[in-house]
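call fold(seq) -> C-alpha cells
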Amino acid sequence: MYDESNHRVTFVNRDKGIDLLLRIEAFPKHTKNLGSALDVLKTKQNELKQTAPSVLLRGERGNGNAWSLMIVRDCLGSVIQQAKSQGDQLTAIHKKLTTWLEILFKDGKLERAFKKMGLDSGMENKRSKGR
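ret:
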C-alpha cells in the first residue's frame, strides 16, 4: 500500500515507508450476510496479530473502507530490513504473505464461509466441470 487514502487506513510506520498489505475485499452490496465469514476472520485475528502489527476487520476503528473485510499489514521496510539483495527482499515478502495466507486458509473454514455467502467466485464448479 503506497497511498493511505486509497484504503482509508494509515501506514503502520510512516517514518519507515509504505506497507505490505493483504486485503480481503468484497463489494459491499454482496456482503449483507457476513456473519459467518466475519466470525471466522475474527478467530484468526489473534494469530495474525502475532505476525503483523495491524490486523483490521470491517467496521473496526482504523479500517475506514467498506470494501475491506480484513486488512493485514506490516511496514514493508520492516519486512525486508534484513535482506541483503533484491532476491532476499522478494523471499522475505513471499514468506510474510505466505504466513498470513496459511493462517487464513489452512483449516478450510474461511473458504467454506465464503462459499456459503456466495463469495467463492464459482472456481470449484468450473474445475469440477473440466474448465
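The first strand starts at residue 19 and ends at 25.
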